[in-house]
Amino acid sequence: MRIYLFVLLVAAAVTFLTTPAVRLLARRAGAMTAVRERDVHDAVTPRLGGVAMFTGVAAAMLIASNIPFLEGLYDGSRQPWAILAAAGLVCLLGAADDKWDLDWMTKLAGQVLAALLLAWQGVQLVSLPIGGVTLLSSRTALILTVLVVVVSMNAVNFVDGLDGLAAGVMAIGGTAFFLYAYQLTRHASTTDYSSLAALITAVLIGTCLGFLPHNLTRARIFMGDSGSMLLGLLLAASTIAVTGQVDPARLSGADLFGQFLPILLPIGVMVIPFLDFALAVVRRIGSGRSPFHADKNHLHHRLLSLGHPKRTAVLIMYLWTVVISIGLLLPLVLSPRPVVIFWAAGLLIALLITFDPLRWRSGRHRKETNVHQA
What we know:
Blueprint: H1 2-29, E1 32-33, E2 45-46, H2 49-64, H3 71-74, H4 79-100, H5 104-120, H6 138-159, H7 165-188, H8 196-215, H9 224-245, H10 249-252, H11 256-269, H12 271-286, H13 299-305, H14 310-329, H15 336-355, H16 357-373
Antiparallel strand pairs: 1-2
Subcellular location: Cell membrane
GO molecular function: metal ion binding; phosphotransferase activity, for other substituted phosphate groups
Protein name: Undecaprenyl/decaprenyl-phosphate alpha-N-acetylglucosaminyl 1-phosphate transferase
């Protein structure tokens, strides 16, 4: 665990320290986010934050390759380098979009190319987690791999609409996925706790934590497509590493839930981005537009329309991610009764906070009034 935490801290530190330089680069290159009608920010803000995030990813993975505990992941395997190369490709693609606003077909082609690079180098779904069922053909495996990677990248991209939202959601969800991947590895082997999925997820978490101080309320820089697609690709790669390469039956024996968890947990981690992505695609196709046509009806827009301030809207989406991610992990360590209690209480609290913003705002207003009077 300490090695993964060290790699996480390397990714966080490098990302944090390089972000100011990237912000300056974005200003000089003209990679700025203008204030558009559909946007919720009110000032022109630099993009290209994903470049700093990729720097953190690259530094952490290069250092990890020289750590004895993790050397086995790199020896004789091209998968870690394939993930790093694909991450660099989507970062470059996103940076080009941050600067020149590429059309959706060009971005989609680049995303598919990155997914094919992963699959070509072995980061590919080869089995379903339910009883280790082998996929029907290599073509099916390839198509499913590309689909998972492309959908993940676009889901994170779609949800990146408020200061600190995408980075925070991915850090929270990534933490849950890291704990699962690490626990799965410990049960799979009594001598070797190294895991590609745990490594990639630790790097993802560190990158998000390093970027968040620059991206919270009144963000000084946005991650842009270069960052959102990078995060989506990293989570997809770690998901594939768990789902396609490790038999989850080793973790939970005959427990049916354990068999489905490699499918359920990534969905839970990405529930907010996936839901936003699915609703946007249905909404736009239903109105006769491209699924990549931007609008002002994302989940964060809807929270704002309910009366939530921006910061509260972000915290609400954090809360939903925490409830679902932890709720999916708890059956591995607790009996059904406390798990049901957690789900009931967590969902009730999340629903009350989400759909009753006036009470929370009025409570905060009364508190602020009392402070001023004092």
